[in-house]
Amino acid sequence: MAKVALLVGTTLGGSEYVADEMAAQLAELTHQTEVFIEPNIDELADFPVWILVCSTHGAGDLPDNIVPFHKQLMIEMPDLNHIKFALCAIGDSSYDTFCQGPEKITSLLLQNGSNAIVDKIQIDVQRDPIPEEPALAWLLQWQHLI
Ligand SMILES: Cc1cc2nc3c(=O)[nH]c(=O)nc-3n(C[C@H](O)[C@H](O)[C@H](O)COP(=O)(O)O)c2cc1C
């Protein structure tokens, strides 16, 4: 059993719903999960696994709710050697900046010593209007690694 933090970046609420569904799937495996809408590094100290479930807004920008977390990572540059992460990016391929928002966070996670557990998934809402379906199938493929 592991403590898994789901970090949500959302404007319209879709990514939060996906994170809730992923948390439920992990809870069935007896993992302890918590969904963070306004994540803060200090609150995440106990969680060795972070799953970022994040859409993109503006032109390749992060949703407003997760911008403070991005700023905190940039300013504090915490040692994240002990953290493993996974990225579930949700976007719309009609934008040139498809799924670019959360890349701003994952590049800082990597710079600060964290490692990806698995290749990211980029869910295109043009093709997958119900993003929780590919998200849960993706999680099923690698959840044994947690
Ligand atoms: C104003 C606006 C700007 C957007 N910009 C982008 C973008 O730059 N890149 C992208 O991949 N998707 C973009 N999208 C699509 C959203 O990421 C997509 O609709 C997503 O499902 C929203 O998820 P959420 O409900 O968690 O916010 C944009 C959507 C809106 C409404």
Automatic annotation (TrEMBL):
Keywords of this entry: Flavoprotein, FMN
Pfam family of the protein (one): Flavodoxin_1
GO cellular component term, pick one: cytosol
Domain Flavodoxin-like: 4-143
TM helices/strands, residue ranges: none
MF GO annotations: flavin adenine dinucleotide binding; FMN binding; oxidoreductase activity
SUPFAM superfamilies given in the database record: Flavoproteins
PROSITE patterns: FLAVODOXIN_LIKE
Protein's UniProt keywords contain GTP-binding: no
Record flagged with keyword Nucleus: no
Gene3D superfamilies assigned to the protein according to its UniProt record, in alphabetical order: 3.40.50.360
Obligatory cofactor(s): FMN
Protein name (record): Flavodoxin/nitric oxide synthase
